[in-house]
Design brief:
alpha/beta; 7 helices; five-stranded parallel sheet
Length: 231
């Protein structure tokens, strides 16, 4: 087991937010262990993007852990439920059908398990509470509560050997601010993937909530999204 407090587990989905979060953690001097959860989502593009991102940015290690949430269903991302399309961002205030039950709780629990095994005290997650689709497990009060749980529920926390910290560096940023931050960090946006419902030819749909919020962020930041040119 490693002992350095500069180790960090970073949840990486391959999207804009998690990629920027990984870049920030690396820029802050952490040795990053990238964790991607293959939860039975509708397509493989996220998993493929996470591998590209982890390699390109220089994660020390990248794990893809399968957890088949399609067995539970209950979400348009894990069941045969239509993906919302063409919504105005102003309409994205209620919890949508793309919410995956307890997803971030499951993800953070796995990240916590790996962090404790590594001897790491820091976990990074790219949640965002401004330009997002209404997910309850992206709110700062939830992440703060999970941090308290992490220190109550682990051997390392109870014995006082570790003080776990859950970092959410993007939580107060809008999508345009995230794009600007990523530009400063030198993120290659072409490596990332945000679309919930890719077209048959593999291009982003351009109309799901995630595509719309991504497009809004790039437009407001005055930055060209390389994925948009593929539509």
């Amino acid at each position: 087991m490693a002992s350095s407090s500069r180790l960090a587990v970073v949840l990486v989905s391959g999207g804009l937010d998690s990629t920027t979060t990984l870049a920030l953690a690396l820029a802050d001097g952490f040795e990053c262990y990238a964790l991607t959860i293959d939860y039975g989502q509708r397509h493989r593009r996220e998993i493929e993007a996470s591998a590209r991102v982890a390699t390109a940015l220089g994660a020390h290690r990248h794990l893809v852990v399968p957890v088949d949430l399609r067995r539970f269903g209950g979400s348009a991302l894990t069941a045969d439920i239509p993906i919302p399309a063409g919504r105005d961002p102003a309409e994205m205030t209620e919890i949508p059908v793309t919410y995956v039950p307890a997803r971030n709780t499951i993800f953070l629990s796995l990240a916590l398990g790996w962090a404790e095994a590594l001897g790491a005290e820091d976990i990074f997650i790219g949640v965002n509470a401004l330009d997002y689709s209404g997910y309850p497990d992206c709110r700062p009060e939830y992440i703060e509560a999970f941090e308290r749980l992490a220190n109550l529920a682990t051997k390392a926390g109870v014995e006082g050997r570790s003080r776990f910290r859950i970092h959410m560096p993007l939580v107060a940023l809008g999508k345009a601010d995230i794009v600007r931050r990523a530009v400063k960090l030198g993120v290659d946006f072409g490596l990332t993937w945000s679309c919930y419902d890719p077209r048959a030819d593999g291009r982003p749909c351009g109309v799901c909530d995630s595509c719309i919020l991504r497009s809004k962020g790039f437009v407001e930041a005055g930055v060209v999204d390389p994925l948009a040119t593929r539509r």
